[in-house]
Design the sequence.
């Protein structure tokens, strides 16, 4: 009610006059005219506080303190010649582009490093712009603007430096005086001073460490040392120059008092020295006396030698004879062929008949496949062990199993046959020594896989291009043709003509009729009367046992391509793959490329029974490694001997054979480069020459395009460095494939690694 009572008693005329009073309007209200808390009062503006919270408090009101130099213990003001590095506010830098600003900043930094604070920012900037941002021209102009006094001033400064040196080194002996007892001037004594330790010491005098006694006057090297820390002045004459001397100021040759003209200075600097000056600011460039530079330049520390693969030397040949000499030899076998040709069923049944699969496991596969309505796939599940492969009924990745014959330990690699998984097939074929080509002999199926678009032709070309020369052709599903000899001969005749064109010799190819589902002629000879009537050859297992094992590079440097990476027990990581060359044992050190990290081998596991923690060339190994970040391990990387690393390059020259392609290959074409377990995009950088497909002779230089069924020498370029070996050095590692748009377009050999 009090509020309403005040309103009723309000005099509106008085309030109206005060509100529009000229003296009050626009002024701040006094503190006693309103009520506010002390905490809020600090945020209100008031002129009575004399701008106690204004920005003026943060602006400097006094002059800067002028710096003074300390000379001989006394403080003296700087001379008018010593100017501040900072400019006055009146100087304005002319407008420059971004590129010119960058050049200007670079030149100014170089000039400050050489000249110090002797010249102002305006002078440095004006000189650099006038001489078009050239460091040498700007430096010459600044040195010639206000030249220092002649030798007397330099000598006086040098005497000061000599005095300081003598005080810090009291053990220094006195310098012998010149003949005739004449007293040398300070400048002459300075010329006798040498800071180089390369001069021979005089007989009968012991020079303190780091200093050398002067030579006779005829061979004496002159050197001027100023008291300023920058620039450093070192003077050394060239041999045979007599008394003429020149001095070097932070790498820039200056003439002596006898020849101080700019023309002689320019002539004394060689082109090689000028190039060296532009390379790096912190690297001093000496005069044109190369022998003097070689002596005066401090020796750089030698690069750290690469670590050894092992501390103790191992006789690899004796170890191989001791561990593998009396046992069975190792053979790497890959199984290829068209999709649905029965590869997994064939080899799964062979493993079951050899006793590598337990009866209980086989019964489990039979029951599970019957539930899915795929009872015929029960042997294929021995190799197709993933859920995706079993549900789709096709092999996706390369399966690996081991079985033994009478004389060999065979590592089986079951490659996928679908065209979508050709890269995986190439990875498996690159790790194999020999191959089995499975074809479907049923009516219509062989023609579908062998004609254009089928994988039988492409797989045969791929394995031959990857170095496989021994081949066993398994004519599968011949039971569907009632073991017809005519059908077998028809398939054999078609394949024989084709394999000859690919590069297989008749002596290296064996044809085996069999049935993967029924197991006929796999391990034991068939007892079918229709089959035994016309065939009496070896079984499939005998044909595998008769294959020749290639020579292993056991004594060569270690080369291993990483095929898989996974986490082992504890914190260790495991990498697996085929050891192409060399010998590896536990506690070895291997170099991981292209990352460049050195890792330690903790354990070595192989597929052979009774292995002693070591592996030889040709083995499929699993290495437990440590001492490296798991994030740097990738499929396709290489492990090698640290003392003999594999070359790294982003350009390579290779000899290729172009397959049956539709679009010709031209310069700049984008392709997929397949090398071991690596798949990398590449570009055809240059078509060097076209070669004869059979003889390899030059047909045409720099062709414009490569059509089908031609051979050529091309240069490939990659987006990142790859680990590649030449074919002449490592035949297994010198092969590659080129693919584009889902089909293989060429195969080649690495002939030259273009080092950059």
Sequence:
């Amino acid at each position: 009610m009090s509020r309403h009572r005040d309103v009723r008693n309000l005099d509106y005329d008085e309030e109206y006059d005060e509100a529009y009073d000229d003296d009050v309007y626009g002024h701040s209200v006094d503190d006693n005219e309103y009520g506010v808390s002390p905490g809020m009062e600090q945020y209100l503006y008031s002129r009575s506080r004399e701008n106690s919270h204004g920005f003026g408090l943060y602006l400097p009101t006094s002059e800067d303190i002028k710096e003074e130099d300390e000379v001989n213990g006394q403080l003296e003001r700087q001379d008018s010649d010593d100017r501040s590095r900072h400019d006055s506010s009146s100087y304005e830098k002319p407008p420059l582009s971004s590129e010119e600003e960058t050049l200007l900043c670079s030149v100014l930094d170089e000039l400050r490093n050489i000249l110090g604070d002797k010249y102002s920012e305006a002078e440095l900037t004006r000189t650099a712009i006038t001489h078009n941002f050239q460091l040498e021209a700007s430096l010459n102009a600044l040195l010639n603007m206000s030249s220092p006094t002649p030798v007397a001033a330099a000598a006086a400064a040098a005497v000061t430096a000599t005095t300081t040196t003598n005080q810090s080194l009291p053990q220094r002996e006195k310098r012998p005086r010149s003949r005739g007892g004449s007293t040398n001037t300070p400048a002459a004594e300075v010329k006798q001073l040498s800071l180089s330790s390369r001069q021979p010491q005089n007989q009968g005098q012991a020079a303190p460490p780091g200093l050398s006694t002067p030579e006779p006057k005829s061979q004496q090297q002159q050197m001027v040392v100023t008291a300023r820390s920058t620039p450093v002045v070192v003077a050394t004459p060239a041999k045979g120059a007599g008394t003429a001397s020149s001095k070097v100021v932070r790498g820039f040759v200056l003439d002596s008092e006898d020849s101080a003209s700019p023309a002689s200075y320019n002539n004394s600097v060689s082109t090689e020295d000028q190039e060296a000056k532009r390379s790096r600011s912190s690297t001093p460039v000496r005069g044109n006396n190369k022998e003097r530079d070689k002596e005066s330049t401090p020796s750089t520390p030698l690069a750290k030698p690469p670590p050894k693969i092992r501390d103790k030397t191992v006789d690899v040949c004796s170890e191989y004879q001791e561990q593998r000499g009396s046992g069975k030899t190792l053979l790497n076998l890959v199984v290829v062929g068209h999709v649905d040709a029965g590869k997994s069923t064939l080899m799964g049944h062979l493993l079951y008949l050899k006793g590598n699969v337990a009866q209980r496991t086989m019964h489990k596969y039979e029951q599970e496949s019957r539930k899915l309505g795929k009872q015929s796939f029960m042997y294929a599940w021995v190799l197709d062990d993933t859920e995706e492969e079993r549900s789709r009924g096709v092999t996706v990745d390369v399966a690996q199993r081991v079985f033994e014959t009478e004389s060999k330990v065979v590592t089986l690699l079951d490659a996928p046959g679908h065209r979508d998984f050709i890269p995986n097939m190439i990875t498996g074929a690159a790790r194999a020594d020999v191959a089995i080509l499975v074809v479907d002999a049923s009516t219509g199926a062989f023609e579908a896989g062998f004609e254009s678009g089928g994988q039988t032709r492409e797989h045969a070309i791929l394995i031959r291009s990857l170095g496989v020369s021994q081949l066993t052709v398994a004519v599968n599903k011949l039971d569907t043709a009632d073991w017809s000899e005519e059908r077998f001969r028809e398939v054999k005749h078609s394949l024989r003509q084709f394999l000859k064109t690919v590069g297989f010799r008749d002596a290296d190819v064996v044809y085996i009729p069999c049935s993967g589902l029924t197991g006929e002629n796999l391990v034991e000879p068939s007892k079918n009367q229709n089959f035994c009537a016309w065939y009496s050859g070896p079984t499939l297992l005998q044909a595998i046992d008769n294959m020749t094992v290639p020579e292993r590079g056991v004594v060569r440097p270690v080369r291993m391509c990483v095929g898989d990476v996974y986490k082992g027990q504890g914190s260790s990581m495991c990498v697996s793959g085929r050891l192409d060359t060399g010998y590896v044992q536990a506690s070895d050190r291997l170099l991981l490329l292209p990352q460049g990290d050195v890792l330690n081998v903790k354990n070595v596991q192989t597929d052979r029974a009774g292995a002693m923690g070591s592996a030889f060339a040709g083995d499929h190994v699993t290495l437990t490694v440590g001492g490296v970040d798991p994030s740097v391990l990738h499929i396709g990387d290489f492990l090698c001997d640290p003392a003999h690393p594999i070359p790294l390059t982003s350009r390579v020259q290779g000899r290729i054979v172009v397959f049956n392609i539709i679009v010709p290959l031209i310069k700049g074409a984008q392709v997929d480069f397949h090398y071991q377990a690596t798949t990398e995009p590449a570009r055809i950088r240059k078509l060097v020459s076209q070669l004869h497909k059979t003889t390899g002779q030059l047909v045409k230089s720099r062709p414009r395009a490569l059509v089908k069924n031609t051979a050529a020498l091309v240069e490939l370029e990659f987006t990142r460095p790859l680990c590649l070996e030449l074919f002449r050095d490592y035949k297994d590692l010198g092969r590659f494939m080129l693919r584009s748009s889902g089909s293989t377009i060429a195969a080649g050999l690495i002939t030259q690694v273009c080092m950059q």
The longest strand covers residues 678-691. The longest helix spans residues 98-115. Confidence is low (pLDDT under 50) at residues 19-27, 67-89, 148-302.
